[in-house]
Amino acid sequence: MNRIKETLARLARAARGSREPLNSSPNSLRLDRVGRSSSSTLDSREKVLVRADGRGPLVLFDGTHNAEEGIDIVFVHGLFGSRSGTWTKGGICYPRDFLGQDISGVRIIAWGWGGVVAGNGTFSDQAESLLADIARVRSGTSRPIVFVGHGLGGLVIKEALNTAAMSRIYGAHVELGNVYPRTIGCIFLGTPHVRSGKRSLGECIAAAALLSPSVPSPQFLRMLKDADKAFENQHSTFLMISRDIRVVCVREKLPSTVAGSADLARDADGMELGRGTMQMMVPRDSAAYESFNVTRHDMVANHLDLARFKSRDEPGYTQMISYITKASSGPTPAEAEAREPRNQEILNALYFDTMTERESRIDPAYGQTCEWILSPNLSPFPKFLKSNDPIMWISGSAGSGKSTLMKHIWHSEKMRQQLLDGWASEGDLHMACFFMFEGGNRIQKSYEGFLRGILYQMLSARRDLIKVAFPSFFDCDWPPPVLFTSISNLNQGFYSLFAHMSETLRLFVFIDGLDEYRIMERKDHYEPKQLDITYERNTGDESWGQSKWATDSHVEITKLVLSMANKDVVKFVVTSRELPVFDEAFGEFPRIRLQEHTERSITQYVAGRLEDEAPGLPDSKNLCKEVAVKSQGDILWARLAIDMVVGSSLRTLRTVLDSLPTHLGGTDGLYMRMLENLNTDQQNSASRIFHLVLKAQQPPSLITLAFAEEGYQLSASSELRVVYDNTHPYDSAAVLRLSDRMQSRLHSCCAGLLVAETGPSTNANSIETGQRVVFVHQTAKEWVRRTDIWQRLPGCTPLDNTELDFSLLSGCARHIKAFQVLRPPVLAWPNWRFRPDAWLLIANALRYAERIDSEVTDLQKYCELLDELDSTCQQAWVTALQGHRPLHEDPDWYEVRLPNFCKKHWASYEPMDAGKPPKRKDFLSLALQSNLVRYVDTKLNMLDTDARKKKAQDLLPYLVSPKAEGFSACAGLMGDYWDFHHDMPDSRFLEILFQAGASPRDDEKVFTKALKTGRHYFSRGSVTMTHLLETSSSTRLMENRERWVAAIKSMLQHGADPQTEIQVTTGSTESTSVTTVAAVDLIRETLEGEPEYAVELIEMETLMGRRGSVGIAR
């Protein structure tokens, strides 16, 4: 809320600045015009106000002819730079003297600023000024904009665009917000964007500040470091708002010599030269970031020379021309604006938050260990890039580095250039990648996820193709009447692109981890024994185990790749383990067996590790080669082996290395040795932590896992820990200590096989994504699932699955209670609702409760824990309301709306991506939707007769007529999230509610709504049925149908009127009609022709007074 206030306040200040009259400050401003311009345009153009102090805008060149044509390029210098001096070398200001002549139709604006940091540690004040000045200079024009930022000037640009985007979201000061949609490109020259290694983003920015023309003060550097969180938030917001802006990140390759002490050199990661000087550069990992619309480049120049060139012949100047061309190659503003709202809605529907999660987890290639893949003397890959072969198969054993190599290739500009020079030389090249992830959620390993990922990458890069792919969705309401992300629709969109662009399209697709693909849409078709992994071999990739479901999935993905591959239009690079199914499918295509190429890479890696961590080791060259040979091409084995031996003494190092198993898995592999090296207490803790992670709905956060590992009750008093937290609350420091302690236990007790993700989330709705606990490799997850592993470890005691679920439920509830000290769990704009990541914790808690419900033995503790979850969420809701301060004076808030809101129950404020949130009167309604049968029954029985009857009547509509409208915002955080309000609850509730006194006769509308609900599950035109058929499954659809039939039958048995008249809407959206039918006829119409329910239909017709006879086919 404070951030919204600050943003709107800044917008107001900036807007006032943009509307200042031209003669408002005669002492500090003067009319001037620098540069060259066509005389035909100069006299007719409004003069631009230029400040004498070097700040604000300065037009260096104007080659535009009217207000609509051409493009504005805005140059923003770095810290302590100058408006023209930063871009000048040898007396040549290249934007003024060269650029305007070499790129036609441009207006070049240089903008100057001072180096005073705002109170929050960021450059928000400068961003306000930039936004106001550009809005004023561009008054009357709608030309597109490309920003060029040098050093920390790039941060000013990012903050300005964030602010402009917020103005559009909040509808404030449109003149400022219009800068944002007109921006089509950003070029960042040596700008730090993300953290680098162990250094925070604030530290990277402070290091970059040292490269400024003047040395900043220590206090200034400290302020930048301390503003780390603010800069992380800035970048997260920029990621969200810049999906349709082409971004080019350029980093210097030559170090700069700057003044600095030895201490400063260590802080900045610089090389001390002596005599008070050092050499340093902006860290490579910090100067660029990964996103679909971002390209990264290096320039052979030092930091200051990134921004200045004295000759057109300098390679750097040629590069700048290409960067500006690339950044400005988007659609014209008029074209983009006309279809932009629907374009964005379609892209938002395709996008899911975990789209790049797997790739982001993959470590970058160590040194030059992957460069061989692009050498024609060492690899067949360059030849493949020029050939018409449709598929290249990169195979390798588990842990051989396939994903690391794929990530390296995917980001290689050299590979892209070879493609453009070869196979794609005469076409329009599009590239896309998808990293399958069996350890992730449903969408990360499914065909739906693959299609959405590929389409999103193609269409976000070329928004003009969105209408080509999905033309029918531009003339209908949104959300559309059919499910947009259905497999059939995604397929149609994919192939529509080929139908319209087959002559020019060249699509190059990378798919990593084919062996991690799963048939999620038909998982329910398999019996439990067909899903279980069996271990038939002790060596090779099959030693990790296979199941019929996994094998069938592998067959399906190979067929999909083979069917889509086309030597003229589509090329695939795929990676997988060396399984027979892939050998059979791809055997005739070019292939690289990775373990045959990795010995040199592993030798380089081991040599680098030993040099860093065990310097002075004798005979290290031979030792590195021995490790490489012993690894048998398994890079993961080499990494783990070095982790184990590097702490040994020099005397025992080789002995320890020789004793290590040469394979990872099995009961005698390296993973087993790592756990055997733990003491018995650590082994027991490892077993518990591993199984908590395995049983979690999604990879848990460090905080949730830390709370869950402690168990759900105190050992001394049996008091629930979540209740104990009421009298011993956590503050932010305590939460941080808890997180750090859990991080340490992952290392000490889990042998490094579990790791906590680092870095900020890419989704502004979530702070959890960047802190989740995941397995270091897929093989580790597969290995710890084996029951025989834990039976062999003496320190492991058997685990109770119900106790684990209890602990996970407790962990979520306690995390929600502690959530408030980290971030408000409730949002006020654009409407009151829980944060998606906070609601996800609630949803996970309820899923664990559902697993416990039928197995629980301690019913009292179970109900007490859920009651505490309810009271915690209600307290968070009321606290957020009472702490809210309206942006503008609003007496109605305190006198009317605040009291009314406080009376509402928190469960009615679920965050939604589409549609309204379901209304819930209390926690029992949500518990009923969550199938907590014993909990609801227990709570009803605690009431007196009249109160029990009233509550049962209140719950009846939730049971028989769930409102399947809208989709939760949590679906964007977790692709396999499923809302509570789409499914029919457990049929056991029918007997509970009717015995408690509920009756369909007391409210005729309940029966009417229940009858209409059947259309969600039996009408093929319904969104719900389409989603059930094409996502999680026909089993869920059949379960909903069975429960609906049971509900209607039970209501008839308890007095529902079969002659109740119901209005039914039929027809399409263009032509609809409303007819009135009796309940008896609607039931027959719904079930007739459904053979599974023929008997139930006869029984219901008998109850309704009709003769029970029915056909089973239509």
Can you offer a commentary on this structure?
Helices cover 47% and strands 12% of the residues. The chain contains 47 helices and 28 strands. An 8-stranded mixed β-sheet has the order 2-4-8-5-9-10-11-15, with helices on both faces. A 5-stranded parallel β-sheet has the order 17-18-19-16-20, sandwiched between helices. A 3-stranded antiparallel β-sheet has the order 12-14-13, covered by helices on one side. The chain is globular, with a radius of gyration of 32 Å. Residues 1-5, 18-49, 267-275, 759-770, 1020-1032 and 1110-1114 have low confidence and may be disordered.
| Biggest β-sheet description | 8 strands, mixed
Distance between the termini: 58 Å
Mean pLDDT: 81
Number of helices: 47
Strand order of the largest sheet: 2-4-8-5-9-10-11-15
Coarse morphology:
globular
Work out the helicity level. Answer: 40-55%
Give the DSSP E fraction (strand runs of 2 or more residues). Answer: 5-15%
Work out the radius of gyration. Answer: 32 Å
Residue windows where pLDDT falls under 50 for at least 5 positions: 1-5, 18-49, 267-275, 759-770, 1020-1032, 1110-1114
Structural classification: alpha/beta
List the helices and strands and how they pair.
Layout: H1 2-18, E1 29-31, E2 36-37, H2 39-42, E3 49-51, E4 56-62, E5 71-76, E6 88-89, E7 92-93, H3 94-102, E8 106-112, H4 124-137, E9 145-150, H5 153-170, H6 174-177, H7 179-182, E10 183-189, H8 201-209, H9 218-226, H10 228-241, E11 246-252, E12 256-259, H11 262-268, E13 271-274, E14 277-280, E15 294-299, H12 315-327, H13 333-350, H14 357-361, H15 381-386, E16 391-395, H16 402-410, H17 413-421, E17 428-435, H18 447-461, H19 466-469, H20 487-501, E18 505-512, H21 528-531, H22 548-564, E19 570-576, H23 580-586, E20 591-593, H24 599-613, H25 620-631, H26 635-645, H27 650-659, H28 670-676, H29 680-695, H30 702-709, H31 721-727, H32 732-749, E21 754-756, E22 773-775, H33 778-784, H34 787-791, H35 801-822, E23 826-827, E24 833-834, H36 836-853, H37 859-883, H38 891-903, E25 912-914, H39 923-929, H40 933-941, H41 945-960, E26 967-968, H42 988-995, H43 1004-1018, H44 1023-1030, H45 1034-1053, E27 1061-1067, E28 1072-1078, H46 1079-1087, H47 1094-1103
Parallel strand pairs: 2-4, 5-8, 5-9, 9-10, 10-11, 11-15, 16-19, 16-20, 17-18, 18-19
Antiparallel strand pairs: 1-3, 4-8, 6-7, 12-14, 13-14, 21-22, 23-24, 25-26, 27-28
Helix pairs in contact: 1-4, 1-5, 4-5, 5-10, 8-9, 18-20, 22-23, 24-25, 24-26, 25-26, 26-27, 29-35, 30-32, 30-35, 35-36, 35-37, 37-40, 39-41, 41-42, 43-45, 43-46, 45-47
